[in-house]
Amino acid sequence: MRHVRPPQSYDGPGPALFLxxxxxxxPDWQSEAAAMLRDTPGLTVLDPRRAVYAPDLPNAAAEQIxxxxxxxxxxxxxxxxxxxxxxxxxxxxxxLGVHATRGVPLAVGADPAYPRRLDVEVQLDLARxxxxxxxxxxxTVAAAKRLSTSGQPPVIGVHEP
Length: 161
Description:
The chain is α/β, with parallel strands linked by helices. The chain is 38% helix and 16% strand. It has 5 helices and 6 strands, in the order ββαβαβαβαβα. Helix 3 (90-102) packs parallel to helix 4 (117-127).
């Protein structure tokens, strides 16, 4: 497995899996997910959590946002995880809405304690009927791994609005 974090760029061949979800005021679930994917040959994990982030540097936020946007669109599969705790993760919700409607294969999970879990479930059921919202990070990672290693991942439940 190859692990790519900003500011490193990736534009290679797939399969590439983006770890989408909260970073600010969230536990480092991305490292845990990457560790679960470590034994996946040929997979590139696109991880938006920087090893070191200096928000006080000029353009740091804009560069981070741009990196995430670019690599979300390059990913063959997107894993969304909504961690427990008080953080609502509004940008991750926005990104889920964008990528649920564009048809990219998704693996989505929301901890039962995530405060907007019902919103995730209902909105996904409307946009992608039949797409499972997993309860655990391990279950979400397993689903993403299946999508990433199956050749051409199926797109489940996509319909035109």
